[in-house]
Amino acid sequence: xxxxxxxxxxxxxxxxxxxxxxxxxxxxxxxxxxxxxxxxxxxxxxxxxxxxxxxxxxxxxxxxxxxxxxxxxxxxxxxxxxxxxxxxxxxxxxxxxxxxxxxxxxxxxxxxxxxxxxxxxxxxxxxxxxxxxxxxxxxxxxxxxxxxxxxxxxxxxxxxxxxxxxxxxxxxxxxxxxxxxxxxxxxxxxxxxxxxxxxxxxxxxxxxxxxxxxxxxxxxxxxxxxxxxxxxxxxxxxxxxxxxxxxxxxxxxxxxxxxxxxxxxxxxxxxxxxxxxxx
Length: 279
Hints:
Blueprint: H1 2-10, H2 13-41, H3 45-53, H4 59-74, H5 78-83, H6 86-89, H7 95-124, H8 129-135, H9 139-169, H10 173-193, H11 195-219, H12 221-224, H13 236-251, H14 257-278
Helix pairs in contact: 1-7, 2-7, 2-11, 3-4, 3-11, 4-9, 4-10, 4-11, 8-9, 9-10, 11-13, 11-14, 13-14
């Protein structure tokens, strides 16, 4: 909603609408592909990462998604949740249904958050739809909406964070979920006052992870369709793709940061695939 407020304050109606649609399309394509991969393979984000980054190389995307999801538990972000899509889409009936439901959910959800932020900015000068509903004498409905939003969002965030930490430390998921909740609660105060910087970190670091997972699946389907894949220890090209993608997304002030990062990650991974095939 904060982004919606900023867009409403800086753009006219048509500019706001164009940004809303473009952002929704980009997010929809990104999450839709990840949803398809998750549903098609039945694998969680961390198991997909093991096949794409290597057994120990998967610690990097697991750590990134875990700590950004802990941040989501504290403040909220669609980019972070979008990257974790395979954790939930893997339960879909098939790849098509997984992709469609993911695209619809994120396109509508992201658009609504932008819209609510814009409406809040117009009515109360802030970005809190809860405050708008209270001013419209909808206090009890506002409490219900806020409670359901926090419950469903944080449940998914802690689930994903727990899976990631379990992959890194080779522990059961439940203790890691509890640990994630404790860290997120403690960090929430700091994140509240550093919200913009945290969003920029998410926007720049996570899309390269999702891009490599998608490419790895479509370029090496046999590794994702077997229950006993031959895992590398580390796929250094995949790791380099995420690191370089994040650096470029942060430092290159041209175009769309997340797309810049994904392009760099894709190039690194494809180069790695070409090199490996020549061995």
